[in-house]
Design goal:
The mean pLDDT is about 85. The strands form four sheets. Strands 1-2-3-4-5-6-7-13 form an eight-stranded parallel beta barrel, surrounded by five helices. Strands 15-16-20-18-17-21 form a six-stranded antiparallel beta barrel. β6, α6 and β7 form a beta-alpha-beta unit. It is α/β, with parallel strands linked by helices and about 400 residues long. It starts with 6 loop residues before the first strand and ends with a strand. The longest helix has 20 residues. Bound molecules: iron/sulfur cluster (SF4). Iron/sulfur cluster binds next to α7.
Length: about 400
């Protein structure tokens, strides 16, 4: 069964990120239960925030899925039961789980909530997927390790939704099956505390297994150091139509721990791509690639999806524009005829150049003429402060929750 409507699913590491993800066009968000999801070190997440988030998302007629996707030990079970009972009351649209214990407990303590099987469960074959579908699972979140050709086989054999990651970090291990961080730092990836040990800079020149004399595993260096195991990041935007044709219903962005500048830019970009896909007029915009390259990444890859890249790739719009060197400046709170109130996320000075992250406005550079509150003029606006920016020209189409970026340089 193929679909021509697709879900854009974004990470929501806290309430602000949730608001930003929905504002920039996500159809659904996923959020963790503290201590029981693979982003366990979320300091500003608790069950009250989760409840508020679910209410907020439902008011917008969008969806929210809650993750309980650790591999629990015996000591974790009481907390899982407690949280499942709570979820049964506050009713997210689904629970994302990976361990059969959570499945069993959810059936008992949260029977009205649909279940999605997490990518951490590594569903890599159709028989495994059918096993879960037969148990009533509404969605399979595909293992990152499957190819598009394999996804077609899943689609032909299943009726449930298929969700696939399209953007974000990749592990060098099978997702969720890595002990590197726990071994090296006592911080477990299974508890959402991965220190990304695979991406550290290691001072070695070759790897050698001790019994294999003369056989060296080459270690490549660049001017930033030596990276033994670091994977590139996933970015499949140019090939979204292939995933869509294979039968994926939901396109998922990784990164609950990433900041709002990244989240806004990536969600907005994939929203535009999916909109074109749904209209049947998909063309890769150079602007998308520039936006996705604004954020630090280890180089992009299409992961396991394609094997070799298609020879011709996809048609690009070929429009070149200035590349801006930008950083997060703040978030719009309120718009008035003569200026815009913002919550600053960095220092902003009069004479700074800014842009708004909104379709059609990304290239328009505004000069900050004055910063003021209701009773004083400010020389600088600091992180966490709210004030009004008076700009050098009229602004149109700006809305609360739009991201403001500071322009450091315009790179030709
Ligand atoms: S150390 Fe690397 S491979 Fe292992 S869980 Fe963390 S990010 Fe993934």
């Amino acid at each position: 069964m193929k679909h021509n409507k697709y879900e854009l699913l974004a990470p929501a590491g806290n309430f602000e990120k949730l608001q930003i993800a929905l504002h920039y066009g996500a159809d659904a968000v996923y959020m963790g239960v503290p201590e029981l999801s693979l982003r366990g070190n979320m300091k500003d997440m608790n069950l009250d925030v989760l409840k508020t988030s679910i209410e907020y998302v439902k008011k917008q007629n969008k969806k929210i899925y809650v993750t309980i996707n650790i591999f629990p030990h015996n000591k974790d079970i009481p907390l899982i039961i407690e949280n499942l009972k709570f979820l049964e009351e506050i009713k997210p649209h689904a629970i994302i789980f990976s361990d059969p214990a959570v499945y069993k407990l959810a059936k008992k303590y949260a029977p009205s909530i649909p279940l999605h099987i997490s990518t951490q469960a590594n569903v890599t074959n159709v028989e495994s997927a059918k096993f879960w579908e037969d148990l009533g699972i509404e969605r399979i979140i595909l293992a990152r390790e499957v190819s598009i050709e394999e996804i077609k086989e899943f689609r032909n054999a299943l009726n449930c939704d298929l969700e696939a990651f399209v953007h974000g970090s990749l592990c060098i291990a099978y997702s969720g099956k890595c002990y590197l961080s726990a071994y090296m730092t006592n911080r477990s990836a299974n508890k959402g505390e991965c220190t990304n040990s695979c991406r550290w800079k290691y001072s070695v020149y070759y790897l050698k297994e001790e019994t294999r004399d003369g056989q060296f595993f080459p270690v490549f260096e660049d001017d930033r150091g030596t990276y033994v195991m670091s994977s590139k990041d996933l970015c499949i935007i140019e090939y979204l139509p292939l995933l869509a044709d294979a039968g994926v219903n939901s396109f998922k962005i990784e990164g609950r721990m990433k900041g709002i500048n990244y989240l806004a830019g990536v969600v907005k970009t994939y929203r535009e791509a999916i909109d074109l896909l749904e209209k049947g007029s998909f063309i890769v915009k150079e602007q998308w690639l520039r936006e996705l390259n604004l954020f630090s990444n280890r180089g992009y890859t299409t992961g396991m999806y394609l094997g070799e890249h298609p020879v011709n790739g996809y048609q690009h719009d070929g429009k070149s524009r200035n590349q801006l060197d930008i950083s997060l400046g703040g978030v719009v709170q309120q718009v008035e005829s003569d200026g815009v109130w913002i919550l600053a996320r960095d220092k902003i000075y009069p004479k700074d150049s800014i842009i708004f992250l909104r379709e059609g406005l990304e290239e328009e550079i505004y000069l900050v003429k004055e910063i003021r509150t209701s009773n004083k003029i400010m020389n600088v606006l600091k992180n966490g402060e709210i004030a009004k920016l008076i700009l050098d020209k009229e602004i149109k189409n700006i809305q609360p929750l739009d991201i403001i970026r500071k322009v450091k340089t315009v790179l030709k």
